[in-house]
């Protein structure tokens, strides 16, 4: 360390030592970070800049290399530590995409890091280091996310799809083939712009794209071919195929990401043989036999989901036809397999009905499932499929686990009203509820402190906009668009952020509404005061309800919550008494006739 930096660090230590520091509290915040001295263990802690600005209590990671040292006595932050990454949001509208800084936002509005760039699609790499931008003239531009500068552009005629490898090292493009001999899937090196691998692929579907799959560290790559899986050295594609595994009839493949140690293969039903999912260990000498296998009857498609650590695989089996005739949309079953062979079977779901959503926690040690007929049920299971926490029932079909594993959001989007329930998983309690109607996409921020929903086109052409919520359900930010196509967080590793700050206590009730609706509510709140000063108006009879709607309120309450109206109008009560008297009269006449006959 340079002498000047050492002197600045000593000044910082003196500043922190003289402050009333305590573990987890930012004392002495300044431009870069808050420097904190903990007298109990004689250690210095550093607090991220955005937390220092909020001046809120925080839990600080003691061994976090991603924090900076800074205080009022330091001219510039000490350079031997990297800065905490700031949150960024990609927003794409008809005019193009732009990058926003934050949250937190200064003065309640986001700062624009990159002005609008015309494009047809944009997507970050999984690690957030690169940004791929597709344009209408069949060109793809690669941006460096740290500088927001374009580093490479590719012209690919007749291109219909493109994607990047997890670390942004490779760009993969798909072109509509003109001849069977044309190699229409090309893998490009983003740094040099040179193609490193090419092959022919007839069709592109969700199950076959991207054609070449990578592990998160880009150490292993594989692709699905006819009756086999082909493996490559992802650091040197000039070696071509390094080994392969033969699986007759294979239709889908899923490589585990972190680490890329295993691969799952799906073989559909054929000639009376049931469908199956098989797990193979990656390696030339270890792929002769599967390490785990599960067979399924009545299986049309599967969704394969690996956990972090590559020790467990969730298999959502879906059939187009429900043989029990309980659902028009078919049936679904959740299965679980482990790579060590200790578990293979169904996940014990306690309610009949479809599986709406499932997601692993960031640690990979538990997963949450939303399942059952409405109102759906949500349960958290451990790696042995033992239920850990019951999250209750409600109009939910979506679950989102925040990257730190502390918070959960249950939501009902799509054809549901948009109810959201936020849970503190570690404390096993609900923090709050709210509603985000017509949401199309939803996701937690990389630091786990914000939850963003977006209403986008072409799914919905009206009321497009973005909403950002705190983990207790309170609305932090909202903006509307004439038309919005995309709103995504820039990916970052959750390990680069400190622990989540302690949040406010759970709120009793929260309603998020439009400004116009709030104005109408304020007017209605004044009306009772005017009515009390004069004679109360005559109560109007209740509106007519047709016979088929008599049970509608009860069904609505059961499915979506709320209270049904139990009060009965005067005419309804009068008719009810009349019907009861008629029944009593008929019963008396029947009894008299029976006595006379005897």
Describe this protein's structure.
The chain is built from 5 helices and 38 strands. 13% of the residues lie in helices and 37% in strands. It has 598 residues and is mainly beta. β6 (121-124) and β7 form a beta hairpin. Among the domains are: 1-83, no CATH class; 119-208, Thrombin, subunit H, CATH 2.40.10; 211-301 and 338-344. The strands form 10 sheets. A 4-stranded antiparallel β-sheet has the order 5-4-3-38, with no helix packed on it. A 4-stranded antiparallel β-sheet has the order 6-7-8-9, with no helix packed on it. Strands 10-11-12-13 form a 4-stranded antiparallel β-sheet, with no helix packed on it. The termini are far apart. The longest helix has 28 residues, at 570-597.
Features:
598 residues, mainly beta, Thrombin, subunit H, 4-stranded antiparallel beta sheet, 5 helices, 38 strands, 37% strand, Eukaryotic translation initiation factor 2A, translation initiation factor activity, WD40/YVTN_repeat-like_dom_sf, TIF_beta_prop-like
Largest sheet, in brief, is: 4 strands, antiparallel
Strand content: 35-45%
Tally of strands: 38
Sequence of strands across the biggest β-sheet: 5-4-3-38
Low-confidence segments, ≥5 residues, pLDDT <50?
1-5, 15-44, 46-82, 502-538, 562-567
Biased composition (Polar residues): 515-537
Domain Translation initiation factor beta propellor-like: 294-487
Region (Disordered): 512-598
Protein name: Eukaryotic translation initiation factor 2A
């Amino acid at each position: 360390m340079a002498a000047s930096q050492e002197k600045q660090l000593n000044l910082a230590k003196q500043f922190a030592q003289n402050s009333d520091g305590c573990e987890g509290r930012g004392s002495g915040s300044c431009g870069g970070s808050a420097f904190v001295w903990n007298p109990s263990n004689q250690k210095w802690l550093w607090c991220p800049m955005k937390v220092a600005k909020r001046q809120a209590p925080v839990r600080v990671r003691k061994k976090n290399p991603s924090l900076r040292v800074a205080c009022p006595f330091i001219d510039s932050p000490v350079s031997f530590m990297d800065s905490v990454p700031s949150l960024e949001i990609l927003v794409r509208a008809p005019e193009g995409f732009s990058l926003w800084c934050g949250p937190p936002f200064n003065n309640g509005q986001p700062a624009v890091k990159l002005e609008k760039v015309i494009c047809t699609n944009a997507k970050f790499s999984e690690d957030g280091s690169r940004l791929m931008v597709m344009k209408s003239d069949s060109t793809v531009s690669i941006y460096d996310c740290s500088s927001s500068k374009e580093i490479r552009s590719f012209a690919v005629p007749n291109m219909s799809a493109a994607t990047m490898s997890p670390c942004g090292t490779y760009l993969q493009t798909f072109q509509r083939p003109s001849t069977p001999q044309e190699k229409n899937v090309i893998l490009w090196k983003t740094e040099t712009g040179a193609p490193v691998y090419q092959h022919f692929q007839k069709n592109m579907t969700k199950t076959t794209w991207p054609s070449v799959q990578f592990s998160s560290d880009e150490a292993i790559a594989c692709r699905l071919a006819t009756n086999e899986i082909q493996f490559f050295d992802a650091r040197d594609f000039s070696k071509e195929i390094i080994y392969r595994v033969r699986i007759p009839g294979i239709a889908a493949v899923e490589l585990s990401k972190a680490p890329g140690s295993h691969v799952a293969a799906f073989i559909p039903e054929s000639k009376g043989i049931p469908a199956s999912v098989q797990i193979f260990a990656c390696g030339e000498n270890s792929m002769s036999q599967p390490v785990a296998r599960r067979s399924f009857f009545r299986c049309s498609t599967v969704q394969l989901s690996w956990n972090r650590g590559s020790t467990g695989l969730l298999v959502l089996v879906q059939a187009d036809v429900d043989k029990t005739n309980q659902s028009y949309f078919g049936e679904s079953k959740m299965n679980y397999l482990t790579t060590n062979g200790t578990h293979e079977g169904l996940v014990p779901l306690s309610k009949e009905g479809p599986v709406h959503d499932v997601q692993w926690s960031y640690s990979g040690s538990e997963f949450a499932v939303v399942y059952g007929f409405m109102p759906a049920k949500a349960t958290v299971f451990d790696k042995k499929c033992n239920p850990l926490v019951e999250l209750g029932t409600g109009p939910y079909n979506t679950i989102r686990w925040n990257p730190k594993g502390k918070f959960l959001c249950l939501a009902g989007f799509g054809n549901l009203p948009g109810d959201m329930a936020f849970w503190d998983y570690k404390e096993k309690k609900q923090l709050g509820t709210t509603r985000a109607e017509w949401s199309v996409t939803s996701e937690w921020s990389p630091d786990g402190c914000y939850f963003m929903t977006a209403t986008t086109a072409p799914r919905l052409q009206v009321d497009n906009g973005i909403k950002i919520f705190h983990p207790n359900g309170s609305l932090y930010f909202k903006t509307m668009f004439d038309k919005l196509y995309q709103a995504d967080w820039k990916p970052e590793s959750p390990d680069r952020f400190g622990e989540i700050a302690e949040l406010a206590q759970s709120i009793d009730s929260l309603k998020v509404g439009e400004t116009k609706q709030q104005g109408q509510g304020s007017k209605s709140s004044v009306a009772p005061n005017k009515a009390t000063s004069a004679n109360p108006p005559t109560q109007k009879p209740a509106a007519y309800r047709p016979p088929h709607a008599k049970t509608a309120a009860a069904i609505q309450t059961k499915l979506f919550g709320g209270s049904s109206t139990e009060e009965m109008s005067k005419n309804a009560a009068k008719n009810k008494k009349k019907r009861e008297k008629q029944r009593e009269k008929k019963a008396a006449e029947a009894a008299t006739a029976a006595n006379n006959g005897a």
